[in-house]
Amino acid sequence: LPAESEAGNYSILINVSDGTSQDTDEFTYTINDVTYPLIDFGDGTEDNDTAFARDWIYVNVSVTEENEDTINFSLYNSSGVVNSTSYTGSTRTINWTGLTDEVYYYNVTVNDTADNSNLTETRTITLDTTIPLISLLYPQNTSYNVVQTTLNYSISDTNLDSCWYSTNNGSTNNTITCGQNITSLNSGQGSSTWIVYANDSAGNKNTSNVTFFVDSILPTISYVSPTNNSGVLVYKDYIGINVTATDDNLDIITIKLYNST
After folding, report:
1. Highest mean pLDDT (candidates 9-18, 73-82, 242-251)
2. Does a structural domain hold residue 116?
3. Which terminus of the chain has fewer CB atoms gathered within 10 Å of its CB, N or C?
4. Do residues 118 and 141 both lie within one domain?
5. In b/e form, how buried is each residue of 182-200, taking b as 16+ CB within 10 angstroms?
């Protein structure tokens, strides 16, 4: 007799004879296919709850079913069905393209000719091609006469993942909580480049930086010979002044002369 895997309608013909006469009888019976198809995601299908900076979703499945009828690939978003495509052949893959940035859900259903069906799990995937918006607000691109100790910035992204900063033009980095301003820094003297970074769960990255200058050290200056000492009475019609000044960023030396008025 046919096995369950050979489901369908069958006829049996019985012929009985005693040598002089014969009798024939025929009856039919049906073998039902009660085995559910087996289906699972295959190579190239992304893991559940992942994010990517692209506009397409590729799905591949493997199916075990001798009496396959249709297979349906379904894609959803928060509003409902985005696409539902059915095949009657042995199609095992689909690639949805031209998709917008959004969270999507997808699954695949297979049916056999006896109307047994099975489906994959529903997986979630986030498409995000937008870089985080980040702006370093303070310090600014200017010169300061005090050491800078604070880094302030603004950050915005739908799928923000991580943030970090550097106070030496990217040579070393420090991880921070996104949106948290940084204090207790030390810019030191001279030129500094500070950078703040952010990326999202899809791998989009953005940065903001500033270069500024700090000189908080006062110049040193002193009178030297032949400048007269203070309070000395001199018999001449001129005053000679000589000074020595020291500073890494010396700019202008100004000498002023006053009288009683």
Report:
1. 73-82
2. yes
3. C
4. no
5. beebebeeeebebbbbbbb
